[in-house]
Write a structure and sequence with these properties.
single chain, 187 residues, alpha+beta, GIY-YIG endonuclease, three-stranded antiparallel β-sheet, 7 helices, 53% helix
């Protein structure tokens, strides 16, 4: 059985320009997903701007194709609209199942996620963050899980290397606690 796939365009309701070209089997479900969760940051910003004006993008079906031809059809429509001067919000040329960002893009995303974009945190900010996390259980059920794992591993002999690493970790943690106590006394 051959499934049909919709090649669609999202148009800016202010001037009817094509801003995004995509493909899907479930047209209205995909449209709703775009409204609430876009495929990339520029797209989300565009949707947010439209929603602040009380508008939504318009949907236009460009072509209905068999699933096996969908990638080629999507690439054709993206190429066509870019050639016409449309400022598409698509990151890729279409047709791929799994988008794999370039090394440069991955580095930029990683830097952004690590907070390097806004610069390194000051010593005071790091100290405040550290103090706010002290003694906090991140997930109450995680404590139960850790206890269960510890019970299940009771009696299993550890290698000398493992004992050494555990000991180093315990010593480092104690040293950090002592240093933090000294810092707190200074302030």
């Amino acid at each position: 059985m051959t499934l049909n796939v919709y090649i669609y365009a999202l148009l800016d309701p202010r001037d009817s320009t094509v801003r995004y070209v995509g493909l899907t089997r479930f047209l209205w479900k995909r449209f709703r997903n775009h409204i609430y969760r876009g495929p990339n940051l520029h797209f989300v910003n565009w949707i947010t701007k439209l929603r602040s004006l009380g508008k939504e993008p318009n949907l236009r079906v460009l072509e209905i194709v068999a699933e096996r031809d969908s990638g080629e059809a999507e690439r054709k429509w993206i190429t066509t609209h870019r050639a016409q001067g449309c400022r598409l919000l698509n990151y890729t040329s279409g047709g791929e199942k799994d988008y794999s960002p370039s090394v440069e893009t991955r580095e930029k995303l990683g830097a952004w996620q690590r907070g390097l974009k806004r610069g390194p945190l000051s010593a005071e900010t790091r100290r405040k963050l550290s103090l706010s996390h002290k003694g906090r259980l991140f997930n109450p059920s995680a404590a139960e899980h850790i206890i269960a794992i510890n019970k299940s591993r009771t009696g299993i002999p550890l290698s000398d290397e493992h004992r050494k690493r555990v000991g180093e970790g315990v010593r480092l943690a104690a040293q950090r606690r002592r240093e933090m106590t000294r810092c707190e006394r200074m302030t």
